[in-house]
Amino acid sequence: MFLAASCVFFTFTDSFRTAKGRLYYGVATLSGIWTFNAGRKKPCMPSDYRLRWCDLFHAGLSLVAFLAFAGSHGDVVACYYPGIPRKVTNSVPLVVGFVVSVLFVVFPSRRRGIGYPFLLQGEARSSRF
């Protein structure tokens, strides 16, 4: 349960850089970003960091993918649904993973949360598109 909740929580995390280049992390809310360590620091454009429908879509997809992979573990299968053929329990995570991956590619997230590699962004660190 904790892992599923953390999977959903981390889809709502985001980050921004201040004018001095300092990196701040936070959680997207309906009113903007709530930062963990910045106190009253806010990004230049707070409206870019609001919670949107696509964030809920990404959280739902992340949860579905996590549940598909966790539910296909051998011990979980043996405990909760032992009558399902092995072919089904082996192919469901592959199909779900493929569909979720395609949807993530077609509808990418603009969130740059905890663990996102900022070195790969180049000079567009604080810009939004």
UniProtKB/TrEMBL annotation:
<dbReference type="Pfam" id="PF05078">
    <property type="entry name" value="DUF679"/>
</dbReference>
<keyword id="KW-0472">Membrane</keyword>
<feature type="transmembrane region" description="Helical">
    <location>
        <begin position="23"/>
        <end position="39"/>
    </location>
</feature>
<feature type="transmembrane region" description="Helical">
    <location>
        <begin position="51"/>
        <end position="71"/>
    </location>
</feature>
<protein>
    <submittedName>
        <fullName>Uncharacterized protein</fullName>
    </submittedName>
</protein>
<keyword id="KW-0812">Transmembrane</keyword>
<dbReference type="GO" id="GO:0005737">
    <property type="term" value="C:cytoplasm"/>
</dbReference>
<dbReference type="GO" id="GO:0010256">
    <property type="term" value="P:endomembrane system organization"/>
</dbReference>
<feature type="transmembrane region" description="Helical">
    <location>
        <begin position="91"/>
        <end position="109"/>
    </location>
</feature>
<keyword id="KW-1133">Transmembrane helix</keyword>
<dbReference type="InterPro" id="IPR007770">
    <property type="entry name" value="DMP"/>
</dbReference>
<comment type="similarity">
    <text>Belongs to the plant DMP1 protein family.</text>
</comment>
<dbReference type="GO" id="GO:0016020">
    <property type="term" value="C:membrane"/>
</dbReference>
